[in-house]
Give the backbone structure.
Amino acid sequence: MKTVLLIIRWVVGLLFIFSGLIKVNDPLGLSYKMQEFFEVWSLNGLNEYTLSFAMLMNVFEVLAGVAVIIGWRMKLFSWLLLLLIIFFTFLTGYALFSGKIKTCGCFGDCIPLTAAQSFGKDIFLLVMILILFAANNTIKSSLKPAAAVFLLLVVTVSSAAAQFYVLKHLPFIDCLAYKKGNDLLEQMKTPAGAVPDSMSIVFNYKKNGKAIEFDQTSFPADFDSTYEYVDRKDKIVRKGNGLQARILDFTLQTMTGTDTTTAVLGQSGNYLMVFAKTMDHVKDWSTGFEEIVKVAQQKNLTILMVTADADNAARLFKNIAIVKCDATVLKTAARVVPTYFVMHGATVVSKTSYAEGDKILASINQLK
């Protein structure tokens, strides 16, 4: 039995460490996923706290994983893990059975799991943790108390520090479609063999106090003004195969609203795109920006400020071309504001946070 418990501890511990570290690499990704759940549940007031929630959860996952492996305070951690996995199972089950959320973000953007895969993983972990919970009194720590506390303190501080670092310097490993080396136009193409979901619009009306539902092909024969409109919703008639382009909604527009995506990405030479979702903290990076612009202009590079806050950007940067982009797209493409994309055609030559100005200048100077 001891051998079985040891195997279970290692499996559970490693899964939690792995899950936590992947999300430590990109805490904003988990934050945005939390916001997606909160929006579905009409809890938008919690959105401003999601980054703090995400960072704390990521640290706890890594900490709990290490604690389970060394067997430290198993009564406490088996309780905490049981509560956590019940919560996770509820979330993944809701995503699966409601159909309102396609992915749960369990392993971040690096290993995207479907709702069904996430739910299955959590059921497996729930069974494993229940076994540990039942046997928690028999599990003893493999380290002395002082050594265990020191190790867990190092794990906690390291996990927290890593998250603060990537919030300023971009993730250590970029798993997004906009990463260095990717051709953005290729990422926008629908894969061969992709079959989209077949949708139908379903209308809800009331007549004489009775709810009536029908789609656009089957309006009631007696449809008239006595029907009271309630709402409409999209219903999946036939499920697709899930294949789709990795980039679905990236568009660039001029200040007048003209789509210029193809013109920008279709260039044959080098250019610089500065992704800045907002101009909220422009004072923190404007000095470095001016220096980078000066060097880029010496290289005859076209410079584009890509932002969702175009009016403020145009007011602040009068000699820079401004193109508009959706804020949701920008927070996916560039986790840090601003992020510098050195481009060659549609290919990302380098992708760098404003906090690493020397790297940005080196990337520009290396261009022919």
